[in-house]
Fold:
Amino acid sequence: MNWPDDFIVFRNKGYVFIKCRHCRKIFKIFRSRLNQGRGQFCSKICTQKFHSKRMAGKKNPNYKNALIQKKCLTCSNEFKTFLSINSNYCSNKCRQTDHGNKIKAEKHPNWKGGIGKKSYPYEFNEKLKESMRKRDGHRCQKCFIHQSKLKRKLDVHHIDGNKGNLSPQNLISLCESCHIKLERNNGKTNLATGLY
Structure:
């Protein structure tokens, strides 16, 4: 590699004295490193500073100086954004509001007709759930796996989907996997076809 004359200060058999390309401090480096095209800087800090100056502003290939004028999708206010960012919202608040409106209620993939907001009655407690698990022999009523082979307790599911109906005939013990599959089927249990 050809180096500028003011770059190499002194040559010796095994090493060379060189001026740092950033701070111009003289330092010693092995000739083999110099032949590999390395050893232009006295430290990592000088390397970083040199490259950050060399790649700053318009010299950087990713530089996009353009500030563009856009209209916020939520509040319709005019705002400026960099071309590289290309935002559609003037603030995080507007972005969150718009995103919330897009997936609200019926538009959300997990929407079940508003039944999710109903809370469970006070009587649907751990004591009732445990009595249902015991009644079912601590086994999932779909795949018949025992609770001891699971990482958590069996879920207690309302067969008719009504959270207020706490009669034992309406409650059934399910493992998490079977319960999730059932809930994906709108929570309706069909005992004739094997739950779901």
Notes: The chain has three domains: 8-54, 60-92, 123-193.
